[in-house]
Request: fold
Amino acid sequence: MNILLTGGAGYIGSHTYLALAEAGYTPVIVDNFSNSHRGVLQRLQAITERPVLCEEGDVLDTAWVEGVLRKRRIGGVVHLAGDKAVGESVAKPLKYYRNNIGGAVSLLEAMQAAGCEVMVFSSSATVYGDPASVPIAEHFPRSHTNPYGHTKLVIEDMLAALNTAQPSWKIAVLRYFNPVGAHASGLIGEDPSGIPNNLMPFIAQVALGKRAHLQVFGNDYATPDGTGVRDFIHVSDLAEGHVAGLKALLERGESLTVNLGTGRGHSVLEVVKAFEAASGRPVAYQFAPRRPGDIAQCYADPSLAEQLLGWRASRPLDQMCADSWRWQSKNPDGYR
Ligand code: UFG
Reply:
């Protein structure tokens, strides 16, 4: 079955491409390459030993997407395309509302016109805002603290409204925790442009000698060592979660919303130590003030995903670090 994979050239998209291909689906990438690299396509081809199907364009172009859905006889859509930097969303909110919400509306209209009603959507643990307790279960109240998070929340609500109006739609909402790591081949991985916003790529660049030291944002949180605690999940586990979500929709036909996390929290300092062990390199760090908008701890109750999808994350923190280091050290300049 042909599956449209929007944002398929990105970090999570490229790993999801491999998981879909591994499971016997034929992924067709749609990407505008605004925050991804064409170089990833050759890598995907090298790993799968198959030509990569890619349509370059924007999900905001409804008529074009409808044409792609028809031409490629698409049986389901995995929608990852979107902007994802929290800080940028505060500075440029309209960009986020247009690209993320406008992009989702456009894609859904194209799907409706083409008669494709199966969608897996990439949401985020950010929809839980500052949770009252951990682990976080799906029924927890949702809120948002920045425009990026707001777009995820609005799209979730939009999908629910569509599903109420048209019960024939099958929709899986996947709430990601903190994806890190890279494919075991070392051929694909995260390639942020400029200074990385996120912890793991920043640590990897310190280990590589590209950056002098990590700033640890806050050491006075109410956590075991005072630094922030997150549910880091290997991107290949996350990718397999998309396949499990898609299969559940196609086989059982019931819409669902699940967390994709490991259920374990690790602190910033634990990640630093694990990365040093995996890479054999020192990771210098300095404590810095808390980053505005950060919460103390965030980790998933992943039991619903296991119950509904038969999926659970299996790759531990040391493997996340080892795979991240393999990618970073083999590709010091990413795909460039
Ligand atoms: N951190 C540092 N130094 C850095 C970068 C991060 O100490 O240079 C700390 C943060 O303060 C936080 C932890 O590392 O405690 C993780 O930070 P990330 O930026 O890697 O990840 P976040 O948890 O802040 O954000 C992620 C995704 C967002 C999503 C959010 C909530 O990147 O898209 O989870 O689900 F919105």
